[in-house]
Amino acid sequence: MLIKRNPNGIDIPFxxxxxxxxxxxxxxxxxxxxxxxxxxxGALLDAFAQAPGGQKLAAKPNPGFVVMDKPTSYxxxxxxxxxxxxGTEKDDPAxxxxxxxxxxxxxxxxxxxxxxxxLDIDSLLKxxxxxxxxxxxxxxxxxxxxxxxxxxSFAEIIKRVEPTGNAKYVEFVTLADRKQMPGxxxxxxxxxxxxxxxxxEASHPLTLLTLGMYGEVLPNQNGAPVRIVVxxxxxxxxxxxxxxxxxxxxxxxTAWSISxxxxxxxxxNVNPNxxxxxxxxxxxxxxxxxxxxxxxxxxxxxxxYSEVASLYTGMDLKKFY
Length: 321
Ligand code: MTE
Fold this sequence. Notes:
Order of helices and strands: HHEHHEEHEEHEEHEEEEHEE
Radius of gyration: 19 Å
CATH architecture: Alpha-Beta Complex
Oligomer: single chain
Helix content: 10-25%
Low-confidence stretches: 5-39
Number of domains: 1
Number of strands: 13
Shape: globular
CATH topology: Sulfite Oxidase, Chain A, domain 2
CATH class: Alpha Beta
Distance between the termini: 16 Å
Strand content: 15-25%
Bound molecules: ligand MTE
Largest sheet: 8 strands, mixed
């Protein structure tokens, strides 16, 4: 995320979005893809081929949730990250998130529900059949990736806890432990990192409770051991390393809307027609495609997930940005 200098004059790091990407990687990938000879299957194989062999996680590909774009390489997806608890530079999380202990890990699901649940990570892994889904992820900074995630619809959780009639929103609270997370020493955000969704957004089948990627458990820098992925919203809505999920009556105060409310709204749907106050959102740079002559891609409404449009019928998406 890009942040301005704060008005008190405290020097707030400025995450670079123009870090040059490894051009040679895309060339190598293209050559390999020619050898494999197919687009979707070959590209997926290729992205997997670069996985370094973390703990495997079996999941059945769900053909209902696939985009045909070439997946981002494992290397790019795991070394170009936003995870401010581990630093504000894109390569910080890959270098420093080794200190995150992902076991034991429990997640409490509580609030306006009839059946609150506290689950350890193994129970969460077994709660519903794991699926592999290839989603586009569009960051508010203007870059995007395509990632084969592993998880199941968050609706599976909702079903089990039985929200009461008072539950209108879902709040995702993430780990904030100074001993494990060096970035917490910096006041860039109010910790813990909190995100939220309206209950109907959280219930949408696309909203993925995510436990892995590229055939393996989540790497620490990508939000191990459990995160949410909401593909039609800017990437910051996809909170990493969740420890508590609360069903609540009122719209949650979220980390980014507290830090810069005029820039980062609660909804944050990908929308090429609503500019960020400091830059356009009409186009995006696909990570891995940044050769000198590569054109930016056009950003699609709802990041291409037009099936969510009915959630916002009658809403002014300029006002509810
Ligand atoms: N979750 C936490 N806890 N802390 C963060 O700083 N950054 C967000 C989101 N989730 C963030 C977070 C942002 S800005 C983005 S773009 C995505 O994570 C990036 O996810 P990725 O690194 O897996 O691509």
